[in-house]
Amino acid sequence: MPNRNYQRGKSFERRVASIYERMGWFAQMSAGSHGVDVVAMAPLEWAVLPYGVYAQTQAKHFTHCRNWKSRGRMSPEERQAAIEQASRHGAVPMLAYKITKGPFRGWTRCEEVV
User: Fold this and answer.
1) pTM score
2) Which of 1, 85, 100, 101 is the most exposed place for a label (fewest CB within 10 A)?
């Protein structure tokens, strides 16, 4: 039987993924928590570029989930690795955090986390 902290962490990751899905995004949780916890992609949209060129665009978020006990913080090395990994794939690095025994707290971009 998995330990309690693992179960709570997976539960929070599922909640974050369901929030993305309610917004109409595709969300996938990563197995084993290797780096990114939730990868989310917005529906495709068409963008008009200069000279009447059309292109499909899609927003992508690489979301890391933390509890409020750690104050939603990431170490500078972990934050830099998250930013580099997301930039390699054209995604926005995000941090989702919550109060330890409470509701979902909020989002922030990893670049804004100190």
Assistant:
1) 0.75
2) 1
Domains defined along the chain, listed by start: 4-112 (3.40.1350.10)
Q: Of 50, 79, 69, whose CA–CA distance to 8 is shortest?
A: 69
* Ramachandran region, residue 10 (left: φ > 0; alpha: ψ -120 to 50; beta: rest): alpha
- Please give the DSSP secondary-structure letter assigned to residue 33: G
**pLDDT surpasses 50 at 114:** no
SS (H, E, C) 79-104: HHHHHHHHHHCCCEEEEEEECCCCCE
Both tokens of residue 29? 């949780």
